[in-house]
Amino acid sequence: MEWSRIKNILIIALILTNIFLIVMIIFVNGNISDSKDTSFDETLEVLKMNGVTVSCDTDIPLSKMAAITLTYDNKNGTTFYTTDPNDYNELSKKTAKKMAEDFIDAHKEYDDIARELTYESAYQIESETGLMTYAVSYGGYFDDYRMTDCYLICYVTPYGVSSVERHWASATKSTEEFELVPLSQALLTYIAEPFDNNETIKNQNIIDISLVYSVVTQVGENVSSDTAFPAWKISTDQGLVNRVPAYKLTK
After folding, report:
1. Domain spanning 43-67+173-245: CATH 2.40.128
2. What would the pLDDT profile of 219-244 be if each residue is shown by its tens digit?
3. DSSP alpha helix (H) spans, the chain
């Protein structure tokens, strides 16, 4: 009888201990989460004071990223094509995209990268010819991160694709991985850095934020390779795009 009572007491004690530990874990994790939210809320307040708002997803998971070596394609450059003046098409974003896709499928010189192309956008541009022209852009990715210095752009007129700008590269991952700079820190850096006209960002709405691979400096136009590092790509509704380094240098 005594042993049965002792056993029951021990079981109850273990249950109470487990409940206590669970409550403590929830409490600690809740405090950590609140701290992170408070920190980002403070960042948003600083942005607001500078006339900057954020209307895009900011819940971007962080993991270590390595630098990558880009080896540029020897076919890179702008190629011009002859269009058929009798083959007129009503041009829109949708038809421009379709014409670009058909063009790439029909031209063997793009077979080596066709499967790697990821459609990004189609937008109307001003053309020296006076013809309505759409730029249909495709990007390259490595480990699901966009490589900003790897792209293909088809320039589409009502008569077909008039030219293609190719800036493609293959990527090799380095062995060193970096801890990433938090988004809140990157945003504060973003509003503090001056642009080419020496003015900082004011009265802008940030509409897109993403982690990308970006080349920090390019030496000359004919470099065969370069190194791309993790960066926060931040875009606004007024067309400003900036890339803030997202990697922490180890001492």
Report:
1. yes
2. 555 678 899 999 999 988 888 888 89
3. 2-49, 93-106, 183-192
